[in-house]
Each structure stands twice: as C-alpha cells, then as structure tokens.
Amino acid sequence: MTDASIHIGARFNGPPHSANGGYICGCMAEHTGGACVETRLMAPPPLDTDLPLKLEGGQWFALHEAQPVARARSAELPPMAIPKPPGVDEAKAAEARFSGFVDHPFPNCYVCGPDRDDGLRLFPGWLDDKRAVACHWVPDTALDNGRGRVGLRDVYAALDCAGSFALEKDPDTWLLLGSFTVQVDQTPRIGAEHVVSGWHIGREGRKHFAGTALHDAHGHCLARAHAVWVQIPAGR
C-alpha cells in the first residue's frame, strides 16, 4: 500500500452517483505514467470519496472499502484504423445531430451532458458520411494545467463519451465504460480549436468496441483511445 489516493469531486460524474469513466481513467494514468495506459473499471467509482491506491505487480489499483474499483497499467494501444478526421466546420455541423439532445441516459454527465453548464459540453453527432461522430472543442482556461495545456484527466475525459455515441446498443439498455486504453502524444492547447471523434469498431455479445481520437485544427492527431463498452439493462 502507498500513501497515494485519488478523490473524484461530485461535479466529475458520468452516471448520477459515480465518476465519469474517462475522468477516473485519467486520474489513474497520472499515477501510472507512460504515454499509453490501459484502465479497467471494476465497479462504479464513488464521488467525493478518498480512494487509496495500491501498487501490485506493476499495476495500480484504486480501492473503495478495500475492494478495487479500477486497475491501471502501462500498455500498448490495440491496432485500429483512425477515420479521416473532420475539419472544424464539419465537426461543428455534426454537433446539431447529437442524439443526446433528444435521448440521453445521463444528461448531467460532466463530459457530454447537455444539462451541464460547467462540464466539457462535448456533443458528438454523426458526420454526413457516417464514418464517425464528431464535435468541436475549444478547451477553456478552467482546464489549464498551469502550462497552457489541458490536464491529463480532462484529455482522457474528452476521449471517453464520443465512442459510445457511435455504437448501436439494444433497446432499453445503457452502455458503461469497461476498459479504456489511451495513447496521449500531446495534450491540447487551451483556447485552441480541436476536434473529437468516435467510431464503431466491433461487438461481441454485451461488449461493444469503439475508437476515439483528438485532433487539432490542422488534422494532427494528439491523442487516441480504444474503449470497451459494456451493455447493461437501463436503470440498473
């Protein structure tokens, strides 16, 4: 056991009473180190609670009441093709088609919740050719890590939800993040225009696979992620 811990404030929620999956994965990555980190979520991460960290066998575990809620380790990104990134104007147009404006399982999500004025407000909608969902993002000064760039936990958060909106789930179900492997080559600059995109990769039963990417306005890929989403009955 180490003396390290993480604490997810109440405003960084995904579902109403647990942390946004990408955000807690980013918190874990800050401790794990390395350019690419795989995080597996093992239970709903509680909010406003100190989660002690344990390093064991080269992996970090976040604990709640002595039980692991997340596990993180250095990894390699699974092979995946990244669709051609949209331009800024194309991404802005796609936002109008964000399905969460009509039907959102967690409208107060820190990342993609339309009912949040203090979140990231990323609303990925389908591009015209349906190759991906995408949205425009200009990180504001509240996300500044002190060096004019976005902190790692918010980069992970920004890469989270877009993938889920590119997936076709069964009726009366929700998709929750199961594991997240993220490669960050460069963090985005505060105040600059960026594009976040997400696309479907595949499905095996209740597991759905999605990719996401963060590009700057010139089409340079700054970060990318492979996610496993788990389908559960709505309201569980």
Describe the overall structure.
The chain is mainly β and 236 residues long. It contains 4 helices and 11 strands, in the order E-H-E-E-E-E-H-E-E-H-H-E-E-E-E. The protein has an 11-stranded antiparallel beta sheet with strand order 1-3-4-5-2-8-11-10-9-7-6.
What attributes characterize this protein structure?
single chain, 236 residues, mainly beta, eleven-stranded antiparallel β-sheet, globular
Topology:
Layout: E1 5-7, H1 21-32, E2 36-41, E3 50-56, E4 59-64, E5 67-74, H2 88-95, E6 125-126, E7 133-137, H3 152-158, H4 161-164, E8 173-184, E9 194-204, E10 207-216, E11 221-233
Helix pairs in contact: 1-3
Number of extended strands? 11
Q: Give the low-confidence spans.
A: none
Helix content: 10-25%
User: How far do the termini sit from each other?
Assistant: 32 Å
Rounded mean pLDDT score: 96
Question: What's the SSE pattern?
Answer: EHEEEEHEEHHEEEE
Gross morphology is globular
Radius of gyration: 16 Å
What's a quick, concise take on this entry?
This protein has 236 residues and is mainly beta. The chain is 13% helix and 35% strand.
